[in-house]
Amino acid sequence: MRAPNLARKLILETPLRSADGAGGFNEAWETVGALWADVTARTGSERSLSGVAISRTGYRIVIRGAPVGSSMRPAPEQRFREGARVFLIRAVAERDPEGRFLTCFADEEIAA
């Protein structure tokens, strides 16, 4: 297994939900911190939603490990941001038995 090239700076964000007074909620994103990552594209697909083409690409994002419970350990429903690009985290797993690195499986969606 090759060592990851942690050369891309990503911002980890977590959702903040607040009641909107009508039974729903408003969602905003709060910055948790910056992490260096190795980002690799996996698969891609396109679908139509209300007549708009949506392109989805899956990514494998490797970062340094963080213990379970740490605020710097990504979790599903959080996201990474790189400028205008947004990667929604779907799953997180240890990359190696020692937990030195984590693999985050994430999706990026773009309206085509």
- Which spans of ≥5 residues are poorly predicted at pLDDT below 50? none
Strand segment tally = 6
Largest β sheet strand count, sense and barrel closure: 6 strands, antiparallel, barrel
Gyration radius, in Å: 15 Å
How helix-rich are the residues, as a percent range?
A: under 10%
Global outline: globular
Portion in strands:
over 45%
Structural class designation: mainly beta
From N to C, what is the helix and strand string? EEEEEE
**Strand numbers in spatial order across the main sheet:** 1-2-3-6-5-4
Output the number of helix runs: 0
Average predicted confidence as pLDDT: 91
CA(first)-CA(last) distance:
36 Å
Structure description:
With 112 residues, this protein is mainly β. It is 0% helix and 67% strand. The chain has strands at 8-19, 25-49, 52-64, 79-82, 85-94, 101-111. The radius of gyration is 15 Å and the shape is globular. It starts with 7 loop residues before the first strand and ends with a strand. The mean pLDDT is 91.
Describe what is shown at a glance.
The protein has strands spanning 8-19, 25-49, 52-64, 79-82, 85-94, 101-111.
Summary tags:
112 residues, mainly beta, six-stranded antiparallel barrel
Topology:
Layout: E1 8-19, E2 25-49, E3 52-64, E4 79-82, E5 85-94, E6 101-111
Antiparallel strand pairs: 1-2, 1-4, 2-3, 3-6, 4-5, 5-6
